UniProtKB/TrEMBL annotation:
Residues 8-160 form the Thioredoxin domain. This is Alkyl hydroperoxide reductase/ Thiol specific antioxidant/ Mal allergen. One of its GO terms (molecular function) is antioxidant activity. Gene3D superfamilies: Glutaredoxin. Coiled coil: none annotated. The lineage of its organism: Bacteria, Pseudomonadati, Pseudomonadota, Betaproteobacteria, Candidatus Accumulibacter.
Length: 183
């Protein structure tokens, strides 16, 4: 289990990248960013923390996209050690859950390293100038989903970003499985 740093590094600039999604399309920051910002989510298929909230991730991604914020998920784990995270399984999951966002494969793990991603899920919310404004959790869920009426922290934060270009001062770190780095 890993926790992201407890304090958002407000204003940190998103690092450009180009990754392929589960359908073979290539994406970069400029192609992903919406007029009001960008939400990047480091997730994977096998993590019990992600599995506990994947339906909420899909729901919240649609709500965030409706705010004019682009959304993408990035899988950076080493599938040699975690076959459930293979490209074929990423494709299956994206299809099965009808992802409204691209599911990108970080095969070199360079993007995760450059962003300082530490766990799955790990959320990075940027404003329209691609300055970091949120590095918190989705909601109070852990290995089990939170109550259905749990505060939707990610959605509330990204709404604030869409309206003001600034994230909330108070943020609770995300918790999940550590990124599975190649040795």
């Amino acid at each position: 289990m890993a926790l992201t740093p407890p304090v958002c590094d407000f204003g940190w600039r998103a690092v450009d990248f180009e990754l392929e999604d589960t359908q073979g399309a290539r994406h970069s920051l400029s192609s992903l960013c919406g007029p009001n910002g960008l939400l990047l989510m480091f997730i994977c298929n096998h993590c019990p923390y992600v599995k506990a909230i994947i339906d909420r991730i899909c729901r919240d991604a649609r709500d965030v996209q409706a705010m004019g914020i682009g959304v993408a998920a990035i899988m950076s784990n080493d599938p040699a050690d975690y076959p459930e995270d293979s490209l074929a399984n990423m494709q299956r999951l994206a299809r099965q859950l009808d992802f409204s966002f691209p599911y990108l494969y970080d095969s070199t793990q360079d993007v995760a390293r450059r962003y300082g991603a530490v766990c799955t899920p790990d959320f990075f919310g940027f404003n329209g100038k691609l300055e970091l404004q949120y590095r918190g959790r989705l909601d109070a869920s852990g290995r089990m989903p939170a109550a259905p009426d749990a505060r939707r922290e990610l959605v509330a934060a990204m709404q604030l970003v869409a309206e003001t270009d600034r994230g909330p001062d108070e943020q609770v770190a995300s918790m999940g499985c550590s990124i599975k780095w190649r040795v």
